[in-house]
C-alpha cells in the first residue's frame, strides 16, 4: 500500500531527535512504520520510516499532519530539509518487512 503526501513545511525538533514533515495526505492512508521517500537529486532518494504521526495546528485555524522521523545527525536533517519544498508531493510506502509500527 502507498500514499501521497503534500508537503507544506518541515522542521527539526532536536530536543526529541526528530525531523518533522508537515502537510496533508492527498491519497491513501499513512501510518507509523511506513517509509517516506523523497527525491534528493542526481537520482538519489532519501528514505526513512515514520516514527509517529502528530497533529499540527495552523496559525489561521485547522490542522495538518506531522510525519515524524527519528534522526540524530544534523547533516542528515539538513539534507532532508533541503530536499523538501512547499507543495511537493512525496510518496509513502509500506515498509519492506511488512510491519505497521515502529519497533
Describe the structure.
This protein is mainly beta and 103 residues long. The protein is 10% helix and 50% strand. It has one helix at 74-83, and strands spanning 2-13, 18-27, 35-39, 45-49, 52-57, 63-70, 89-93. The protein has a 7-stranded antiparallel beta sheet. Strand 1 and strand 2 form a beta hairpin. The longest helix is centred in the last third of the chain and has 10 residues, at 74-83. It starts with a strand and ends in a 10-residue tail after the last strand. 16% of the residues are buried. Mean pLDDT is 87; it is low at 99-103.
In short:
The chain is mainly beta and 103 residues long. The chain has one helix at residues 74-83, and strands at 2-13, 18-27, 35-39, 45-49, 52-57, 63-70, 89-93.
Q: Please tally the helical runs, counting DSSP H or I stretches of 4 or more residues.
A: 1
Fraction of residues in helix: under 10%
Strand order of the largest sheet: 4-3-7-1-2-6-5
Mean pLDDT: 87
Separation of the first and last Cα atoms: 20 Å
One letter per element, helices H and strands E, the order comes to EEEEEEHE
Shape: globular
What fraction of the residues are assigned to beta strands by DSSP?
A: over 45%
Structural class: mainly beta
Amino acid at each position: 500500500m502507498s500514499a501521497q503526501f503534500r508537503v507544506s513545511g518541515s522542521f527539526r525538533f532536536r530536543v526529541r531527535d526528530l525531523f518533522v514533515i508537515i502537510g496533508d495526505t492527498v491519497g491513501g492512508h499513512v501510518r507509523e512504520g511506513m517509509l517516506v521517500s523523497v527525491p534528493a537529486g542526481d537520482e538519489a532518494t532519501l528514505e526513512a520510516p515514520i516514527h509517529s504521526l502528530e497533529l499540527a495546528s495552523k496559525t489561521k485555524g485547522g490542522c495538518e499532519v506531522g510525519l515524524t522521523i527519528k534522526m540524530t545527525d544534523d547533516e542528515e536533517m539538513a539534507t532532508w530539509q533541503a530536499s523538501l519544498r512547499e507543495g511537493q508531493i512525496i510518496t509513502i510506502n509500506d515498509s519492506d518487512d511488512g510491519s505497521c509500527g515502529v519497533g
